[in-house]
Structure formats: C-alpha cells, structure tokens
Amino acid sequence: MGEVKNAEHFCYAEETKLAWEEGRLSADINEEQRKLTEADLIIFQFPMYWFSVPAILKGWIDRVLTLGYAYTLEKRYSQGIFKDKKAMLSFTTGSHESMFSADGINGDMNVTLWPVQNGILNYCGFQVLAPQIFWAPSHILSEARSTMLEAWRSRLQGLLEETPLSFTPSDFFDGEKGFQLKPEVHEKHAKKEFGLTVGTHLGKLLPPNNQMKAGV
Length: 216
Prior knowledge:
There is one protein chain. 31% of the residues lie in helices and 11% in strands. It has six helices and six strands. It has helices spanning 12-21, 27-38, 55-64, 109-122, 142-156, 183-189, and strands spanning 41-47, 86-92, 127-128, 132-134, 173-174, 180-181. The strands form two sheets. Strands 1, 2, 3 and 4 form a four-stranded parallel β-sheet that branches. Strand 5 and strand 6 form a beta hairpin. The longest helix has 15 residues, at 142-156. The protein is globular, with a radius of gyration of 19 Å.
C-alpha cells in the first residue's frame, strides 16, 4: 500500500517499479522474486493454452517480472538483468507435432514460441534453453508418454551445460535510430539465405528451428 506515482495517469510498470523500490510489493511477490534471484535455472512447466501460457502463469509474469527488478530500458535483451541465469519452457500440447510444423494447420512452433521466449525471457536477459515439448500426451499410448518422461529425465542431468538458443545481440541495433539493425549488420547478412532470427528475419526465410534448437 502507499501513494501512487501518478494518480492522474496510471502506468502499471512505473507504479510497480516504485513499489519495488520502496519495498511495498506484496509478500507473495517478494517471495517469488527472492526465489528467482537465488536461482541459476528457471523451468516454466505448463500446458500450452491457446498457443501461449495459461492465464495463471501470465499473471505470475506480470506481477513478478516488474520494471526495475527484472528489466529496465537500459538493461534488457543481451544486456538484461538476468543475463547470468538460464531459463526454459517445458510444456505439453493438445496437438500433434505435425500440426505445429511450417506446413501444419497450427503453423510453425518456432513462430508460436517467439513472443514468450524472446519477448519475455530474452527480454529480461535470460539465456534461453531449447524448450522441452511434450507433443499431444493425451492422444498417445502410455508407453509413448513414459518414453517422453524418460527423455526429459535424461536431459535434466546436463541441462545447465546446454548451449542457449540464438538471439540477436542488443548491440546489433542502433538506439538512436529507433533500435533498427545497424547498416553494417544488414550488409553482412544481405546475401545470406536466412534471417537472423524468427522475429528479426530481414524479409528472408526464417532460420529453421531457431526457437527450438540451439546453434541454429
């Protein structure tokens, strides 16, 4: 509780920043931020809802990743506050993998993942590991589900040593010109077949599996 920064023009980001600075965030948010601060790796486990995270997880993101604590205008993307931490998505889908392909009815999963992996995790500076996707577990045999879990159990053993996904570094963009790619970056990639990332594609073909496999 306390006075708001601007009662005439309420801005959630600025108000939560002030509350964080003054120690006025609620106890549950403080506890979640404490756990996040102490963690080296954060795994977001959820069922994919409507091609995104469920509302309860989106609420956690909105309340916990506050301005000042999780990001600032100066500290974001590759210069982000959490650049020394790793994060990843682990989720189930209701559709089969083929439906989330480049020619599938749901569209390319790499495109679906971009808003969360780039717009939230990478934005806050996290080194984003490739997602663990459990494709349509409710539509497959129990033996296949057991195989999925065993693969996940095996992967967990070396998760901290994995190479993160590739995102375009902040210094590739010119902050004085609307954060557009610098001319020399454009020139360097002018003759390449694929764009830099799913989002920064330069009007070219999307780099295959850019949001699903490291090193691409």
